[in-house]
């Protein structure tokens, strides 16, 4: 009896199975390059290393998932361009919008924060409605998700003008002086900026909207296997309380798992 035909299919099956395993191993072994910007207190450079809650969480999650990684702090335009062209794989920590959803995949939500307005210390404004900002000149860092959000507010507030600055520091200095009446910022970033620069003429007037920050992974250059491995490790560490421990050490509010 000729048994040659009986051994062909099992051999092919074995070869395909080995290739699948090797492909999975390759995907999970890829080193992930994470880019961010100087964005205290969420990400920043300290003693020559990338620091902050985002960096601490990435280090812990990648260790749990068995993923190699590298962390970079660059100007925001370069950080984004590197991910778009495959020189890097992910951005942290970022708000979400429709444009980012076209080229990035989300991690689970990581931290709850908010956008709001800082005004002069002598300004009696207690913000409860955006209409109170009529005729205010407002500084903001842009281009950014923050500036895009402020533009939407401006569309509903008569007389509001926007002064776009190339970085948060410039925006806060303008508002602390005589250039603008207010500055729009992430609250935690604003409080850190005021402390860093020693600004005495600004205070937080109130919230515009709440938001969550994520890690965004390139849809084009990060495999599904790698994304799933990272997110599964994050969820495991969250359920063990490790993510919350990191964020609470920075006085930040962890996002609930979705």
Can you describe this structure?
The protein is an alpha/beta fold and 258 residues long. It folds into two domains: 29-111 and 212-254, D-Maltodextrin-Binding Protein, domain 2, CATH 3.40.190.10; 114-211, D-Maltodextrin-Binding Protein, domain 2 (3-Layer(aba) Sandwich), CATH 3.40.190. Helices cover 41% and strands 26% of the residues. The protein contains nine helices and twelve strands. The strands form two sheets. Strands 1, 4, 5, 6, 7, 8, 9, 10, 11 and 12 form a ten-stranded mixed beta sheet that branches. It has a two-stranded antiparallel sheet with strand order 2-3. Helix 1 (4-29) packs across helix 8 (224-239) and helix 2 crosses helix 8 (224-239). The chain starts with a helix and ends with a strand. The model is unreliable at 1-8 and 13-29 (pLDDT under 50).
In the predicted model, the low-confidence regions spanning at least 5 consecutive residues are: 1-8, 13-29
What order do the helices and strands follow?
A: HEEEHEHEHEEEHEHEHEHHE
Largest sheet: 10 strands, mixed
- The overall pLDDT, averaged over residues, is 91
What Rg, in angstroms, do the CA atoms define? 23 Å
- Report the top-level CATH class of the largest domain: Alpha Beta
